[in-house]
User: Which sequence fits this backbone?
């Protein structure tokens, strides 16, 4: 058999294994997980991870990725989630060889389950995917490949460095693990170097000896596409020393060529206003997702610490009576002052087998847009939302006076938290209305966070903390202590600011209106202004946690 004939036979065997996948037990999908940022997963990769029975990981970072996608990872109890198999390291903690990895993959592929092999970056680009896929094909099993975003292109892009332009169209990618003849790359406009951190000094000398100018621009980016990303720009003559100065460590991608100069105008990721900021989010778990997502948008690293737990009222009879009264037509209005209030009433409706039809003829008020959205998700529309300030005060400004000629009923159902203030009730009474102020839910202090988190709060390892209510201030201080003086304090409104100041904290940022998205935008504006001031002063851009104040901040006199 000739070599060509053998190759043709092998190709046919591989195609046969895949085309007959639906008729034979076993198989595997090689899925690229991208360069580090989980949001760079392809839609196909996301679906494969969601549907997998068995996930073969490559490194510890894949456990975090799977937990984020699937929500649960339990290697001991596969029934609680996908079964996790370590395909990168052996029982002795040492990295597996390519041959050993292939054996693990083939063994799992034979089980007849939905098996997914996770590989960083792209499975077939500078990865062990080709060798493992060959082993699977040799075993007569089906496989498929889900390409991923490769760090070769993604990391320079996140550093603001295009690998090609209209003037520079040639790119050479070089793995620096083995000895390289650098004279072959003396004239390539752009070089992308992999695994070059430890050898960059020798590589730079060899490139200069091969004819490249010592002043050729060089950029080295470590931990690319993550909020720990760090880039140093230099030249061939100085890159080794500069990389040592800022302590660049693997994994890193190095780009050599004039395209590096474009970073000065195209750097978009590391210049985000909250880039790398560790932001404490002291909220209820149910309410933190939107806030955390917005912080990530601006480059922040949110860390959610539950300070409030939402519980049912101790005595549900008051709520039961009010809901019955609502159905019987006892009220003219129902006023929702929070998303939690909407949730509490909706749960009570479901308990009684009621639906939105029970609101027929009832006027509905919402304290703000977020609450109105929660009402809309129930299939209802708020008749009254404050036109100005989204708060109880704003609601009162727009609330109509009771008119016995127009309003057949003068009573308002007000389902609220047990710690709600009396201002709204008093204001409605002044307008001529009677109020049933009903405890729909209780807010209780959560358990203290873990010791490392408490230490980080007190010692200034958080760059900012966002307070969304007065109770979050009181409860955070109560369960974890006061934030360090260097921590930026951002609050959602004047009442929260007053509480923060009463606890000895100086407020740096206050949202112009009480909305979590607006609060994050205000914090981002603060971060952008702070960064711009440092740049204009010729200073190195630092995070608040990099500069510790000498004493605890107090309320400004």
Assistant:
């Amino acid at each position: 058999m000739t070599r060509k004939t053998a190759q043709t036979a092998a190709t046919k065997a591989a195609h046969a294994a895949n085309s007959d996948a639906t008729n034979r037990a076993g198989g595997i999908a090689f899925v690229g997980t991208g360069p580090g940022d989980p949001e760079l997963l392809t839609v196909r990769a996301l679906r494969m991870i969601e549907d997998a029975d068995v996930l073969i990981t490559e490194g510890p970072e894949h456990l975090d990725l799977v937990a984020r996608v699937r929500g649960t990872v339990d290697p001991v109890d596969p029934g609680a989630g996908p079964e996790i198999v370590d395909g990168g390291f052996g029982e002795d903690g040492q990295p597996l060889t390519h041959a050993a990895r292939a054996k693990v993959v083939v063994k799992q592929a034979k089980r007849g389950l939905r098996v997914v092999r996770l590989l960083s970056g792209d499975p077939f680009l500078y990865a062990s995917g080709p060798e493992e896929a060959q082993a699977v094909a040799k075993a007569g099993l089906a496989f498929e490949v889900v390409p991923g975003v490769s760090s070769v292109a993604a990391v320079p892009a996140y550093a603001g460095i295009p690998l090609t332009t209209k003037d520079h169209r040639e790119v050479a990618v070089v793995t620096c693990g083995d000895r390289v003849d650098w004279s072959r790359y003396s004239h390539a406009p752009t070089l992308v170097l992999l695994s070059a951190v430890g050898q960059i000094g020798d590589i730079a000398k060899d490139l200069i000896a091969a004819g490249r100018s010592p002043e050729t621009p060089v950029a080295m980016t470590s931990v690319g596409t993550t909020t720990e990303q760090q880039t140093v720009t230099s030249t061939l003559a100085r890159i080794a020393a500069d990389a040592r100065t800022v302590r660049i460590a693997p994994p890193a991608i190095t780009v050599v060529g004039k395209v590096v100069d474009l970073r000065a105008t195209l750097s978009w990721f590391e210049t985000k206003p909250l880039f790398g900021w560790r932001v404490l989010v002291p909220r209820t778990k149910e309410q933190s997702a939107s806030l955390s997502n917005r912080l990530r948008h601006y480059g922040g690293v949110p860390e959610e610490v539950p300070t409030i737990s939402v519980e049912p009222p101790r005595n549900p009879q008051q709520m039961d009576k009010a809901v019955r009264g609502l159905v019987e037509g006892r009220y003219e209005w129902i006023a929702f002052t929070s998303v939690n209030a909407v949730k509490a009433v909706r749960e009570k409706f479901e308990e009684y087998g009621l639906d939105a039809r029970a609101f027929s003829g009832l006027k509905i008020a919402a304290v703000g847009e977020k609450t109105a959205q929660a009402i809309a998700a129930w299939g209802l529309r708020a008749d009254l939302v404050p036109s100005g300030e989204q708060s109880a005060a704003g609601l009162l400004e727009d609330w109509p006076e009771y008119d016995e000629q127009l309003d057949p009923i003068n009573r308002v159902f007000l389902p609220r938290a047990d710690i709600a203030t009396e201002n709204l009730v008093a204001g409605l009474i002044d307008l001529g209305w009677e109020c049933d102020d009903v405890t729909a839910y209780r807010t209780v202090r959560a358990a203290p966070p873990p010791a490392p988190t408490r230490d980080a709060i007190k010692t200034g390892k958080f760059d900012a903390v966002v307070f969304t209510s007065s109770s979050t201030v009181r409860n955070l201080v109560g369960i974890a202590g006061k934030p360090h003086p260097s921590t930026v304090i951002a609050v959602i409104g004047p009442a929260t600011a007053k509480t923060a100041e009463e606890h000895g904290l100086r407020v740096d940022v206050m949202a112009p209106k009480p909305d979590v998205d607006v609060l994050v935008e205000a914090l981002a504006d603060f971060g952008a202004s702070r960064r711009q001031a440092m740049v204009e002063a010729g200073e190195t851009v630092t995070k608040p946690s990099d500069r510790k104040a000498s004493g605890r901040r107090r309320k400004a006199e």
